[in-house]
Amino acid sequence: MARLQGFSLPLSPEGKANLLPAPPWHYSGDMLHIEYRTNPDAVIALLPDELEPAEDPGAVSVVFADWQSCTDGGQELLDPYYSQYKELIVFVGAKYKGEPVSRCVYIWVDKDFAMVRGWVQGFPKKHGDVWMSRPVTVGKAGPRLAPGETFAGTLSVGGRRLVEGKVTLTGLSEKGPQVSAPPLYNSRYFPRWDSLEPAVYELVNVAGVDKEFSPVWEGTAEINIFDSPIEELKSLEPKEILGAYYHSFGYTLHGGKVIQQQKR
């Protein structure tokens, strides 16, 4: 019997049918950050026992991202359906053994391969429809990277609008985004089939290499979070805007680091 191949399901004789090819994974994207403060208790309720509240326990970052990704061969770039996707990411701050970390508590994405790749890294990805403004360098059909220009983003889930935000640029930023800046600590969780206990439950560090940043723009922001019968994001509704940013970002991911095996 031939050995079935593939990094992820479905396994197949040649290994081409798998949804997610093996790393390294290369990413390039444009990102719109809106940082705000919410009820600290709502953030703390989302932290696992292994993490402690951050110095600013109510700080949240909502990030709209328009990505392009590929493996080493770059074949996905020649069939753009398999390289382009958009997502909305919700980061909060925390501490691990007294040191600042960041954590993704919610995330929605619009492509299946990106969803599975996120699960491998501990991102709790769900499907959603994400849209965001694209900067232009010619014409009038888009914002420019210049003071006074406004960028917007939306997320809809299950046919319902869940998030809408906009950022009006004021100038270049010296500090850039803060909530998502510390090391990222996610939880990999996969249930067993024969019991309610998890087969995998790990606290992991997701860290890329070869990172590149464009100049970071900052600005003023507005954000609205709407209720939904199948989501809990409304508990993180904003009380105070902390900052807003737009920039491009690129990096490569070879794999992650298991910080500890967790117990339920």
Describe this structure in words.
By secondary structure, this protein is mostly beta strands. It has one domain (25-261): Acetoacetate decarboxylase-like, CATH 2.40.400.10. Helix content is 6%, strand content 49%. It contains two helices and 15 strands. Strands 1, 2, 3, 4, 5, 6, 7, 8, 9, 12, 13 and 14 form a twelve-stranded mixed β-sheet that branches. It is globular, with a radius of gyration of 19 Å. The mean pLDDT is 96.
Mean pLDDT: 96
Proportion of residues in extended strands:
over 45%
Counting DSSP H or I runs of 4 or more residues, the number of helices is 2
Within CATH, the superfamily carries the name: Acetoacetate decarboxylase-like
Q: Give me the count of strands.
A: 15
Order of helices and strands: EHEEEEHEEEEEEEEEE
Low-pLDDT regions: none
The CATH topology corresponds to Acetoacetate decarboxylase-like
If you compute it from the alpha carbons, what radius of gyration comes out, rounded to the nearest whole angstrom? 19 Å
CATH architecture: Beta Barrel
What is the CATH domain class? Mainly Beta
Q: How would a textbook summarize the main sheet?
A: 12 strands, mixed
Question: Which SSEs are present, and which pair or pack?
Answer:
Blueprint: E1 25-37, H1 40-44, E2 52-53, E3 59-70, E4 84-96, E5 99-109, H2 112-121, E6 125-127, E7 129-132, E8 150-157, E9 160-172, E10 184-191, E11 198-206, E12 209-213, E13 217-225, E14 240-253, E15 257-261
Parallel strand pairs: 5-6
Antiparallel strand pairs: 1-3, 1-14, 2-4, 3-4, 4-5, 7-8, 8-9, 9-13, 10-11, 11-15, 12-14, 13-14
